[in-house]
Amino acid sequence: MRRGLTSLILFCLLCGGGLMLLGSKFGAERSIETTTADGKTMRVSLFDGDGVSVRFGSSWALVEAPGVRVELPTQPEMPEMPELPEIPELPNIPIPGGSEKVNSDLSGETITQLNVYAAVGEVTIQCGDSWAVSLDGFDSSYDTHDECLNVYANMGDVVVAVPHGAVLEWLSVESDAGSITLDGIQTDSLEIIQSMGETVLKNCSWGYADIENDCGSVSGTKLSSKGLNVDADMGEVDLEGGFTGETDIESSMGSVTLTLSGKQADYDIELESDLGSVTMNGHSSGRRISQSGGPDSLEVSCNVGAIEVRFAG
């Protein structure tokens, strides 16, 4: 009996603190108090009958030995884990620049008009040996109808080759985000609409051009224009070439620099900046310069930014 009690005391010492006594008398009671490893007092009672009971918190476990009964705490039941929802399969999203590539030779086609729309990507229209279309991206296509080439690219780069010496009746390019580059192109009518990105014109000529750019620069070298309208919301405008007829440039925010091959005396001139300097042929006259002159006209207005005009003739 004492051997059982000794074993019980050792067992309780190993169980640690936080104990309280609950006993049921089955005979004369004999009690032993001891200190646990964490410094708490534990009382174990032995009865002549058949039991000792020890309670840990609110949970019970029963350990029986000859002449001894001890009730010890049980581990609380773990709650069942909820079922996780199934993860849906991801759709197969095509990657721009992946498998969709188009390289088409249109040398047998008669084309006088060209329309290009690119949502996101670079657009390049340049001279080549014959008509050709190169598309590299996602959801891109082209078609020809009534001597008109239509090119569409949702996401990706577009390159169109125009035969050397060809003069288009109509050229329209629209881009939501990405650069537009025209190199060596001749057209009676030109329209460029760009939301974000730079517009670059090199060695181009047109009868009339309308260029809109919401956010990005407009630049050009070796240009020949018989009529030009530029509307730039945010970005620099820097153009060089021969500009006859009416030339009208508006900039909301950004400098305007023009280098004209003609003579100053050939132009009616109106230059004005709300916030920025105005300079013509190196001479500044505050924020406004006006001149009456020849058959051509030049009008430049800028809300925020400097205006500089130079005549090379």
How would you describe this structure to a colleague?
With 313 residues, this protein is mainly beta. It has one helix and 26 strands. It has one helix spanning 2-15; strands spanning 19-21, 29-35, 41-47, 54-56, 62-65, 68-71, 101-105, 113-120, 123-128, 132-145, 148-163, 167-168, 170-177, 180-183, 186-194, 199-202, 205-213, 218-234, 237-253, 256-260, 267-275, 278-280, 283-284, 288-291, 296-304, 307-311. The radius of gyration is 44 Å and the shape is flat. Helices cover 4% and strands 59% of the residues. A hairpin with a 2-residue loop joins strand 22 and strand 23 (283-284).
List keywords for this structure.
single chain; 313 residues; mainly beta; 9-stranded parallel beta barrel; 1 helix; 26 strands; 4% helix
Write the layout of secondary structure elements.
Layout: H1 2-15, E1 19-21, E2 29-35, E3 41-47, E4 54-56, E5 62-65, E6 68-71, E7 101-105, E8 113-120, E9 123-128, E10 132-145, E11 148-163, E12 167-168, E13 170-177, E14 180-183, E15 186-194, E16 199-202, E17 205-213, E18 218-234, E19 237-253, E20 256-260, E21 267-275, E22 278-280, E23 283-284, E24 288-291, E25 296-304, E26 307-311
Parallel strand pairs: 8-11, 8-13, 9-11, 9-14, 12-15, 13-15, 14-16, 15-17, 16-18, 17-18, 18-19, 19-20, 19-25, 20-26, 21-25, 22-26
Antiparallel strand pairs: 1-4, 2-3, 5-6, 7-10, 10-11, 21-24, 22-23
